Every structure is written in C-alpha cells, then in structure tokens.
Amino acid sequence: MNFHKAVWAAAIVAGSMSISIGAHAQIAGTQPLGVTVEQSQALLEGWSVKKSALGKAVYNDNNQKIGTIRDLVVAPDGSLSAAIVSAGGFIGVATHDVAVPIGALQVRDGNFFLPGATKEAIHATPEFQYSKIHTPPKPKKVDAQ
C-alpha cells in the first residue's frame, strides 16, 4: 500500500472515531458515515499515522537522517498535502520545520526518504508557519448526572 493511501486510511479512521463518540458498536449497513466498501477495506489494511509516521526519521539517499516527521497537513479538500519535517534542535528546542509535499516522500522498507535532500537544504528552506485559522471554542464539560 503506498504512503498516500495508508495515510488517507488513517485519516478516515481518526475522523470516524471522532464522529462515532458515544456509539457502542458499529453494525454493518447502519453507519451514517457514508464509508464505501473500498474505504472500509482500506481501513482494515491501513496503519496508524500516530504510530507509523509521526516522530519517525526522514532520511536522504545516503541514508543520513535529515529530520523527523512532526505533523501532517490536510488540505481543505480533505487530501493529505504535506508532511512537516523538523530538522535540527534538541528535544524540540531550536528546530526548523519545513513543509514537504507528500508526493516527495518515499517509503522504503518502512522508512521515510526524501530523495536529494540534505540537512543544509532543509535549513535553507523557509520555515513553515501554521495559518492563523480560527479554531472552534473548546467544548465545555458536561456534568454527569
């Protein structure tokens, strides 16, 4: 399974888990999620982004570690658009985060590669800045009765 499909499947799992809070069981044919048979199969064959991608090293063609996957960016249309690769720093201090198009990353033998990249090229790339999108307010706690 290629990287794009696996990450998309993991995103579907994460989204469906947040939608189904409070549900006790999923019963075939009764889910309002609109998940197709193909998507359901992809979920069964997929893998966890949290366990398999976030925090994992990114290597170049010379097997040199050039950074770590810190985040994944989902575009407004729902597609996975970029991986945020963090280079340098120690324990998250003084890191340099750059957005790498998902299509540029390769997965080989379970490891992530960015062909042609170097630490110097990562540091020369302008640092990624998250957009200033207004987030919805945090939900208030509901007292259990």
Automatic annotation (TrEMBL):
The keyword Magnesium does not apply. InterPro entries: PRC-brl_dom, PRC_barrel-like_sf. Residues 54-110 form the PRC-barrel domain. Keywords: Signal. Residues 1-25 form the signal peptide. This is PRC-barrel domain-containing protein. It comes from Paraburkholderia caballeronis. The lineage of its organism: Bacteria, Pseudomonadati, Pseudomonadota, Betaproteobacteria, Burkholderiales.
